[in-house]
Design a protein that fits this description.
alpha+beta, binds iron/sulfur cluster, Alpha-Beta Plaits, 2 helices, 14% helix
Length: 74
């Protein structure tokens, strides 16, 4: 399984939680300790090592706030 990493853009994230619901690894949560400029609790990745890079979260996000990176092995 490919290893992955996500970056969540706090400018676009509206804390809807859709990505947290669909992540098969259950590693996306809404961050109760952070409030964005627009007043939302944004999604964060709580266990980067467990991300497979499947991109389900990015496909689900209605605000295109998630970028997914996959490790390329030579
Ligand atoms: S790329 Fe897949 S495993 Fe990684 S955070 Fe998104 S849904 Fe979860
Ligand atoms: S689906 Fe997008 S807008 Fe909704 S919480 Fe996740 S990153 Fe934020």
């Amino acid at each position: 399984m490919a290893k992955g990493r996500v970056e969540i853009d706090l400018v676009f994230c509206k804390g809807c939680g859709l990505c947290t619901d669909v992540c098969p690894a259950s590693i996306l949560k809404l961050d109760a300790d952070t409030i964005t400029q627009k007043g939302y609790h944004p999604a964060i990745c709580v266990d980067e090592a467990a991300c497979t890079g499947c991109a389900t979260c990015a496909l689900m996000c209605p605000d295109v706030a998630i970028a997914v990176f996959r490790e390329v092995r030579a």
